[in-house]
Amino acid sequence: MAKIKVVQYINQFFAQIGGEEMADYKPELRQGPVGPGLAFNAAFGEDAEIVATVICGDSYYNENLDEAKATVVEMVKSCGADMFIAGPAFNAGRYGVACGSICEEVKNKLGMPVLTGMYVENPGADMYKNSVYIVETKNSAAGMRDAVKKMAPLALKLARGEKIGASAEEGYFPNGIRKNFFEKERGSKRAVDMLLKKLAGKPFTTEYPMPDFDRVAPNPAVKDITKATIALVTSGGIVPKGNPDHIEASSASKYGKYDIEGVMDLTADTYETAHGGYDPVYANADADRVLPVDVLREFEKEGKIGKLFRYFYTTVGNGTSVKNAKGFAAEYAIELKNAGVDAVILTST
Amino acid sequence: MKLELGYINIHDIQFSNESKIENGVLYVDKAAVEALVLEDEHIKTVEVDIARPGESVRITPVKDVIEPRVKVSGGGGMFPGVISKVDTVGSGRTHVLKGSAVVTTGKIVGFQEGIIDMTGVGAQYTPFSKTVNLVVNCDPVDGIAPHEHEHAVRMVGLKVAVYLGELARNLTPDEIKTYETCSIKEGFEKYPGLPRVAYVQMLQSQGLLHDTYVYGVDAKKIIPTLISPTETMDGAILSGNCVSACDKNPTYNHLNNPVVEDLFAQHGKTLNFVGMIITNENVYLADKERSSNWTAQLCEYLSLDGAIVSQEGFGNPDTDLIMNCKKIEAKGIHTVIITDEYAGRDGSSQSLADADPAADAVVTGGNANELITLPKLDKVIGSLLPIDKIAGGFDKNMLEDGSIMVELQAITGATSELGCNCLSAR
Sheet harboring B114-117: ordered strands across? Predict the structure, then answer.
């Protein structure tokens, strides 16, 4: 098999051109490895080689962003390579930002696999960890050996299009994509160990950092409910009998929109639940228990509400990811709004 | 309370004309077991089978898994309040048929029953690919309601496990493990320098086929209370639920609760395992508030320094988990929670239905939405018919070559929130 061709991006310092005084150095393409590229070549062995190196000053890159990106992308393209590596940048802030930025650009413009590495406190880590793989390194160039040891095998996997393991296995910063892997200890043991560390005031790493939870403030009350059009939406899985759209019993990938024009009551013959998270007997016997069409029709007749909206939207909440649920709602919320619906009764189970 | 578990190691199960244990082999009189199962008027048909580790066998839809045990001394019997009288258990001697399990399967009750593969990639995810399983495949009489069906099959599993356990009553164990808890006063005196730690176990109690029983009491109807961890080893807590297979706690896992085991392993060394609090996961907000308030209060009463909270199920119970964590932490007690994740098939979604900054120490059993392709296996015990309907299955998930695509949530015990497995996620 031919060796994988890698292009590496480094700054003026690692190219031994100079320090801060040379930070305005314009992009230059050199054949073969330069500086850290030698260590990468050694780690790659027969599998890959650095065919070219792009050198660019940190100030130049960050102060001439568009131009620098375009020039570097052209240079990388001209090499016909399979893989792009930037840095590692350790704790050099502008270098880190440049590495993240150029990786993102090369990935988007050339569709090439890319990889960089830097220290956790490098501002580039937070800025780009969700868009490109960034290996966590030590905070100075003294950690080069360690960085190469982690980056080289991951670069090979990326270049070959192999399956990438979880962040904890591969050494990249968690990027918001949860991946399963097998730990060495079972969960209960990990919990006891974590608690002992927490009790002793020692550092510990949570396996799931809490996200910023999306709390929605309720809208003001409907001014005149007797004039309002009310829609019914449910995550309780009520569907026309037979579940025509095959909404999953758990982990729903879709929602249904069904016409209830003229439907006064949901009966066992006409509606049922697709939900697999509870004993369906009572919902199947009378689906109004979950989606109260009957009561709303009464209210409509008595003038307690304006009217019941012609369609209801339904999905199964059971095991459905928050992202899917949010995606469904984003779609039908617009439809509801455009249809002039004033308020929604959202039922769950 | 002091309990000795005497392990009788079982490496194989074989059918025979007499039920007995000899040289690590569990011989089962098939006809006797089938007759025992058919004593239940709700059961129409039964077939008993054996599934061994490494065999090309798939068991589905799996309802419960139970480890055969027998109470030898110390008062009470297995599964008090359900099978045995309601005497307090958890002391004396209990014999365990280690390495074996009873698995119940048959016509699907609801949607949330699982898959156990004895070989292939699926076997890596379920703890029950490593046990020799006596599989009780039974179908109910016609016209039975789901909750009656669940009850009948639950009782069948327990009865068969007790029948097998009884065979070990007079045997000499291969290994004896001793678990001893001390009273509050003794604990203070014996381990003055060690942090006081308790285990808070959340029991599935959402209702409508999501139930757990404690000494025969439906856990929906309990308020949080104290229980000795050794009581759980004698079947004080058992599963009666059809929550998604991956993160429900089968009765086997209640008997072998790994959090209890791992806390006992540190007891007297790095921590003082004070005891265990059980609480529930009811669906009404008032119940959630009451139970989490009470749980935090009990933690405070016990003068704890730390607590481990385990969850069962997902979604709705995520709110109970976060409430418990937040309120226990607010008492100044360090808390670690064990959960699993529903981060979507691509892993990009928020994982839990609730969150709080106080939950800063989380152990995860992995992303249950992650897809897995299970190869076609030679033999199916039970039925593949519901494979697209069980939680974790989806329309047309049976591929042309006979392999099956499911989310991990369909695999029994895959993302255990008791921390039975090494599976995790980042």
Answer: B114-117, B57-62, B379-382
